[in-house]
Amino acid sequence: MRAADRIEAWLEGVGALSELGVDPTILAFALAAVLLGLALWVGWRRPALLFVPALASLAIRPQLLWGDRNLGYEWGLSQTLLVLALLANALHFGVRRSINWPILALIVVFCLNLLLGNLHRDLTMSLMLTGLSLLALPFAFTQVTLDPASRPVCALVIAFAPLLSVAIGAVLQVLGIHTMFLSINDRLEGATGNAAIFGALAFAGFAVALHESTTGPQGRTWLLALAGINFALVVLSGTRMSLLATAVLLLAYTLGSERFRVRLRRGRAAGLVAIGLSGAALAIYAPTLYVRVHADLGRFGIWARFYDEFRRSPMFGRGIGSEYIAPNPLELLFAAPHNEYVHLLVIGGIFGFVMCMAAIVAWYLNLIRTAAPHDRSFLVALAPAIALYALTDNILVYSTGLALYAYLGVVRQSGDLQALPPIAETCVQLNVTNMTERSEAQGVSLRP
After folding, report:
1. Which H/E stretch holds residue 50?
2. Residues 204, 404 contacting (CB under 8 angstroms)
3. What is the mean pLDDT of residues 52-70?
4. Looking at residue 182, what DSSP letter applies?
5. What is the spatial distance between Cα 254 and Cα 248, in angstroms, rounded to a whole number?
């Protein structure tokens, strides 16, 4: 019996519980409540630990186990786990009192939609709230104060997440549950069920591995090899804009970070491995990549439909969440605009677009201003890459894109530590050390 058949039989068995007088819905809610309580308890005792499964969950979409389609921009397990992790850190360490301009702008757009917008006829309040949550979540990572010791762990989980997705995808393929290559052009999708979504995860893994190779007194040059692997995975995903954004990030970071250039010279072996892996992937995938680069983007028809939606309410938009409404079920995969600028223009109109873009720019400039000096060059190099990526993909609402925004959250936390006076910083580091020692001895983490 195949694994997929076993899962189907298990689901049928759960449905048969009703014959025994057990309501499967009540059982599911009870299990969910137990898991939620366990997650909150773990999150309170060890807040950084809760981020590990949350970030690792980005490597797989559980719905693939029973054949569900993966759109990548609906609320799912990963978003729920990341919200729980943020909630645990907020309760344990607090939140920043500064205004989060993107979230505030999105709330204002939401209200204007209800008051002045020409809402889509199929738009519901539930869909509006889901759309608002998906757009606001990326910016929440920089608003919550995170565990000061969480950066190394979170960075490694994100950097290894693409490889984890490939490994899980290989297991699923061996078991006959799901293939890890898209049938069209043999694009690698790992265990995410979508090549473009996997490309976003590989891009985040590349960016984090690239920058983390320069952290610490001596750096971790072996991460350059991991960056090369993730670059190769970006190529194999066949996601054109992801590949272009990765190349732009690499070029901008090389030119803008003297620290990276020094570490690159010191870690020649790891650098050669990275170049070799990236070159091999490009050589193997070159014929298919050539066809995809010269093929029709397939976006123009989608953009034309969303432009028509924009014309129906040009000033105040069609409503947050309207971007996920497809003309018919067969076009559900192409419901999202695949362009974040068009996305904001449709949901908020001209007024909402200008307000959201200004808020995002202000948020990112503040992130650069408050970052530690060695992180600023990375953030500056990342800006054009993300701006370019957003032209043809849903980088704000892709589930795997959250890996990059979570990393920006830990980068912001490093900036806060850097800004402390020497005595205060020493006290924080001592508290972090004590917390780590107690965790190792007792298995718990105390509030610093």
Report:
1. helix 47-56
2. yes
3. 76
4. E
5. 10
Q: Alpha helix (H) ranges present in 57-123?
A: 77-93, 101-116
Tokens 């969303």 locate to: 306
Nearest Cα neighbor of 154 from 209, 100, 191 is 209
Distance CA 115, CA 317 (A): 11
Question: What is the per-residue pLDDT across 261-297, written as a single tens digit (0 to 9) for each?
Answer: 777 776 666 556 666 666 666 666 666 665 655 555 5
Tens digit of each residue's pLDDT (9 = 90 or more) over 390-432: 998 889 988 899 999 999 999 998 877 665 555 444 444 545 4
Is the pTM of the predicted complex or chain greater than 0.85? Answer: no
Provide DSSP, 135-165: HHHHHHTTTBPPPTT-HHHHHHHHHHHHHHH
SS3 247: helix
Separation between Cα atoms, residue 145 and residue 149, nearest integer Å: 12
* Alpha carbon distance 418, 428 (integer Å): 11
Distance in angstroms between the alpha carbons of the first and the last residue of the chain: 52
DSSP state of 187: E
